[in-house]
């Protein structure tokens, strides 16, 4: 068991529906979550699988757990900073359904993706303007890679600005 898991508050009773619901609502007040992400969090806290299943079903019924709203909230906070591929990966890791993720990201065209990368490139270039050229290029490349853009697309943008 990792140190992180030991620090989590454990369920007093693994079968307590009231405690499980209270914990789930508390987690949802921090931020919107997918059903799978919430299930994993409750599981880490020691609740029984059947208790979690019943709690999640009740939360969906009363509207407290809304995956589409959680997905949109996640994108609202990150879509202007990261590539489609990075967003797709993060959303899938959070347990959102592939169809929902693909649907949400379908609105971003290749041109939008390119424009975002160019804007991030310009901003980072200005921030690093005092560095030597080779060091600045490496830092910008690394920055854009962490944002999820492909090396070939980054080299294209970097090459165009050098000309």
CA-atom Rg in angstroms = 21 Å
**DSSP strand (E) fraction?**
under 5%
Percentage of residues assigned to helices: over 70%
Low-confidence stretches: none
Q: Shape from CA axes?
A: elongated
Helices and strands, in N-to-C order? HHHHHHHHHH
The chain-level structural class is mainly alpha
Name the assembly state.
single chain
* N/C terminus separation: 54 Å
| Discrete helix count | 10
Give the tally of β-strands: 0
Entry summary:
By secondary structure, the protein is an all-alpha fold. Helix content is 71%, strand content 0%. The longest helix is centred in the C-terminal third of the chain and has 18 residues, at 110-127.
Q: What features would you describe in this structure?
A:
- By secondary structure, the protein is mostly helical.
- Helices cover 71% and strands 0% of the residues.
- The chain has helices at 3-7, 17-30, 35-44, 49-61, 67-78, 84-93, 98-105, 110-127, 133-146, 151-162.
- The longest helix is centred in the last third of the chain and has 18 residues, at 110-127.
- It is elongated and about 60 Å long.
- The termini are far apart.
- The mean pLDDT is 89.
